[in-house]
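INSTRUCTION: Work out how this chain folds

Fields: amino acid sequence; protein backbone structure tokens

Chain under study, with its fold:
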Amino acid sequence: MAVLKLNYDQAERILELQGLRKWFDMKYGLADRLAGKPRQVLKAVDGVDLTIFRGENLGLVGESGCGKSTLAKTVLRLYEPTAGKVIFLGTDISHIRGEQLRALRPGIQMIFQDPYSSLNPRMTVYEAIEELLKVHRKCPENACRDRVAQLLEMCGLSMDVAGRFPAEFSGGQRQRIGIAKALALEPAFVIADEPVSALDVSIQAQIINLLHDLQNRLDLTILFISHDLRVVHHITHRVMVMYLGSMVELGPTEEIFQRPLHPYTLVLTKAAPILDPTNRNREYAIEGETPSPIHTPSGCKFHPRCVFCKEKCKRETPALRELAPGRFAACHYPLGGEG
């Protein structure tokens, strides 16, 4: 597990989210209007406050549909925030457009889940990276070849691959090319959205180790999105847990895994797969289906699936509280603490 020696009180804030929301209006047709049905809203991201510091790798975990990728796309300004602020390097970028938005792009880059769809099949590796360098004027034209070679070398590839097309590579090689593209613009902040979930297990460890090495070498700040708790445990410094669009817990990675405060975090960490075929323990399997983000439960959103649920949990929404230094949880009755 990565250990970050960082004074959070003095560290530079790369990204700040303040009350960030991204809601989607659901389809509302003529039949709905005639029937007098109310408009429905999908609350994909519902009031997230978060700070990410320079040099750290923050893990973002939760079940499918909890809002992880929507949060990432809202930070990238691929989605317009419904409310709240996205502050990047001290500047509110929540609603910038046009030239301001284009100027922002190099500073925030993304490594995508599917390395093939993120590459242009009609461009060679060299052309794809060279285009980025030229458009954003990252180096003189006569220096592009050396810069491409440097980026490929950092990602475990050589210039021998530069003249080939994406279809000629394996999934792991494509992801290395995708990482090289993300680093070409020298970003201050990288979002890695499930970067190894589409790869064979034998290749996943190589890509994870590459990201770890690149972070140390280039002093990268990373938001690492994953549903694989084993990977998150290995590579991140802190972990944020999301459930139905809201943050339910935040803290240092080792403490999150050793002493979770929120019942949802407990079942997530205990239900994580173990590489031991003799271990069939299902004691902590999560009960029930995730509720709809359109019709979220009253009170604590997790209460219908929580074995520790009490009446207060059904009525009142718990606030995110700091229960110990650097440990935050949104629970009326946190595990190991007083309600």
